[in-house]
Amino acid sequence: MAAEKKIQTIGVLTSGGDSPGMNAAIRAVVRRGLALGMKVKGIRKGYDGLMNEEIIDMTARDVSDTIARGGTILYTARCAEMRTPEGQERAAEVCRKHGIDGLVVIGGDGSFAGAQKLANLGINTVGVPGTIDLDIACTEYTIGFDTAVNTAMEAIDKVRDTSTSHERCSIIEVMGRNAGYIALWCGIANGAEDILLPEKYDYDEQKIINNIIQNRKRGKKHHIIINAEGIGHSTSMAKRIEAATGIETRATILGHMQRGGSPTCKDRVYASIMGAYAVDLLAAGKTKRVVGYKNGEYIDFDINEALAMNKDLPPYQYEVARSLSANYDR
Description:
This protein has 330 residues and is of the alpha/beta class.
């Protein structure tokens, strides 16, 4: 859908969970917008800050030396009010009051749902996928996933070292909400013996226990279980496994360390291009769009179409992960 008039002032906000690379996207939005002759306003604390009018003018200097920083310089917050018609009307009214005729929303599905509502109220919006969970269906890449999965991989390597020294079983819980992408990637990258994914786990704990016992009989000195956040309960699971196997079992919950840290080169570059692409869409008169990455290309989708898509774990990747681990049948 085309915007009715040329965009003169754009706003940019980060919403929902933060992810490494968001600052690269903000920087790109600001500098691309300024290069195209627009004014750029930064909105602090997501939709919550929008409703409270925490809005600042941004210059190229304001985003200097931010590309290497984790988190988001604009801060972020959850906003229950944005789920209500009254909150949506309020947010649209604030945009109009501050002359924001184009809005770039960096976040996940929940953030895009807010952008969709604002677009329906006449605010030109473009969404940029920023989430470590990789759970946005229209894109193969989301800002922050690459950094988060590398952070988790390095932490799991360290846990494996001590787990081997003590001949332990280690359950390591990674983030991802109800999506198992971080767990799947770490399972392959860290050579885990078991990977528990929300999309696949059958909650047959006895099967895991049998696998641990069999591996110990074969002479394996440690056992690594990657547990996805969507399954959780790693500490109680560790206690049950230790009681059943007699093997010392420890749970490590990596938690929010996965959200932080300096973004990888991939997250910096992809986020920069996506941020610039979002500005270009607005400049071209496009609205109600979501930026994505598929088959080596940066593309965009209608926001309604993007939110209606479903994303599943790639079956082949899961099958490979299973076959490369210490399988139950060998």
